[in-house]
Every structure is written in C-alpha cells, then in structure tokens.
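Researcher: Here's the sequence for the chain we discussed earlier.
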Amino acid sequence: MKKQKIQFWASIRQAPLDSYENNIYYNIDSLQTMRSFKRFMDIAALVLSGYKQAGPVEIGPVNTFYSYNPVEGLRLRVGGRTTEQLSTRFYAEGYTAYGMEDKKWKYFISGAYSLNNKSVFKYPQHFIRASYQHDTKIPGQSLQFIQEDNVLLSFKRGENKSYLYNDVYKLEYKAEMKNNFSVEAGITRTRQKPGGIIRYELIGENGSSTFVPEINTTEINLGFRWAPKEQFYQGKLYRTPIYNQYPIFTVNYTAGIKGILGGEYNYHNVSANIFKRVYLSQFGYADVNMDGTYIFGNNIPYPLLTLHRANQTYAYQLLSYNLMNFMEFISDHHAALNIQYYMNGFLLNKMPLIKKLQLREVFSFKGVYGGLRNSNNPTYNTNVFAWQRNTDNEISSFTFGNKPYMEASVGLANIFKVLRVDYVRRLNYLNHPNVSASGIRARIKVDF
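Model: Thanks. This is the structure I predict for it:
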C-alpha cells in the first residue's frame, strides 16, 4: 500500500524530486521508526493528554488514578478509552474506582456511535451516546474539561463532606450543522442517595423528622447552541475556541416527568447563556458571560434546583464562584454576570525591568442574584427537604437576600508563560458559616 502511494504521488508530481528533497522524505520516514523518537512522543502524549497509548485503546487519565476526599477517603481509579485505531465511528470509555473509607465501588461506561463516519469529537459532530454512571458527586458541581477526582482537586478549603451517590442512565443525541448551529437532546434517569453529612430530611409542622433514603428523577432535555463564524483548534477530545467578535448563544430546556421510569417529580427548567468577547483595542479585551435560569414547579427538593457552582479548591475556576462554599446558595430562578478582563500588559509593559517578564494583568468580577419561591423554600414549606446543615449543626445552605452574591479578583497571568495567580475577594454574605473573605487562587493558562 505504501509503495502504491509513493508511485501515485510520483506520477502526478509535475517535477521529480531532487536528491535533497528525497533525503528529507527519507529522514522523516526514518524518524517515525526510531525507538527513541517513538518513546519521546509516547511520553509527551502522556504528559499533555494524560493517557498512555496501548494499541487501539488509551489508559488514563493518569491524574485521576489517585485522589482523596473525606467521604471516600483514598480513592483509587483506573480507566481508559478507545481510539480511532479500533473504530472511527464507535467510541467507548469507562473507569472503575474504589474508596478506601466508604468501601464502595464506583464505575462508568459509555458508548457513542457516529452517524457521519467521523470521530464523535470532530466537527461537525453527529452521534448518539448511551452511558451509565455509579459514582459520587458534590451537589451543584458540573466541572468541564476536568474530573472531580483529579488529584489536584483533592486539596480543598473548609468543610467538604457534602456528597451524593448517584446512578445515572443517559441516552443522548447531538447534531452540529455547518452554520455553527447545534442541537442536543436526551433522556436521563437518575437516582440520588445522600452521603457524608447530607440528609434528605422532612420536618413536619410538629417538629418531627422523616428521612428520605433517595430521590428518583426522569428528565428529557433539548438544547440549542449558535456560535456565528466560530473557529477552534480540534484536539482528540476537546476543542480550544478561537473567540471572535460574535456572541455565542446557548438555550436549554429540561423537563422532569413524574411516573415515567420511576420519576418522582414534575418540573420545567429553562436556562440561557450569552458569551461575548469584547475587544478594547490597546486596553486588551474582556470575556463577558451572562446566564439565567427559571425552574417552574412546586414542592421541588433542593437537589433538583439550582445549586450555584462553588469552588472550595485552591485552583481558580473561570465559571465557578471561587469563594463560595459548596451548596451555599440555592435558587429556583437567577441571573448571573461573569466578566474576565485581560489588559494584555497595558500597564506592566510600561514599567522598566518588569516589562521583560511579559506579565499580563487580569481582573474579574462575578455576581449572581436570584431567589426561591415559598413553594420550594423549606422555611415556608414542610413538604421539601430542610436546609442543609454542617457538622456543627449550623444551617449552611441559603437563598439570596436583598442583594446578589459578588466576588472580584486581580491577578497576574503569563507567569513562566503558563501560570495565572489571582487574589480573590468576597464582597458580601460574610456572615455565613465557614466562609473565606479572601484567598489566593492559581490556574494553568497558556498565553500566546
């Protein structure tokens, strides 16, 4: 086959290759067979992607092999995924994990089938996927591009004992169009059991307590995304967007259905997000995220409402509130604003000596405001679960008062070309238990 390809290209080449050009082809081909070069590429792929190639499958990611949390204790995990060497149209991944403290096995398996004879991760995506997961989760956490059992996320501030044991069955469909418009649809069956200090507790009007062992939901969802003239770098699994002056719109609708596949609740969740990069000429640029959610329904327990995305690690997370505690704020309607302002060295480049370090100024502001209707608020309704409490038996979950939650940060990016470090300040709700008024957070970010 290789010889036929060489003959084909030689037959259509307008001018034959000279000896120098032939040597280049020979050296490149020889390089691919060198054991030392193949070993170097294998190690580089392991460092950059976290996976070890093993024929038609890859083992990893290595940063999840070991992690720790107070509920599971030492958590050991091993997993892997198939590659295009096995199949272009079919993709599978999975893992198994074990907690040394809770002595329970966790596992995940997923299979996807491409409907356009391309990898399920390549543009335009068009696939169906089925998955099952039995694992723990911090309520309200939906981390993108990073696993919660990443070893670097094992280090957390404050109390970290609020976990759920989930069984999630999911069937998904996704289709991307050439105009950068995409559609997602699916059905999800979920069973949630409390773990750690979480209690599903109903408190009657006479003060009596009833503990609910689990909740079951069946959801159907439909989502739309439109990103005009979007461009991106395509990796094996992830895309790195190249943002332009056009906004990105996302709308999602989820319906909880009672009585289907064991679902116990009826509700409707509508959410929308707008992202826009604003260019400010020599003053840099700002990434602006605006989002909002409204949940229709009554007597909905808090695990099915919006538990705002908090971060108790020491890593700076762009889409999380970095000084908010897990499960601290709960709402059934909210609006949020997230601004990341990159000044691109406008100030630091004017300082002698400092400018040689090529540091970049970065600022951020995050705010979220919402509420909880009386029909879903345990303060007024005894038919929903009581407010979550911490190990000191203090109420540790709240809804918003008469002001939004706000935090701001100032930091330096491009440290050693890869590191961003922020000083983050929480601006209000400082009377809540176990909160931090300020902190230093770091993030790996490659600037070009």
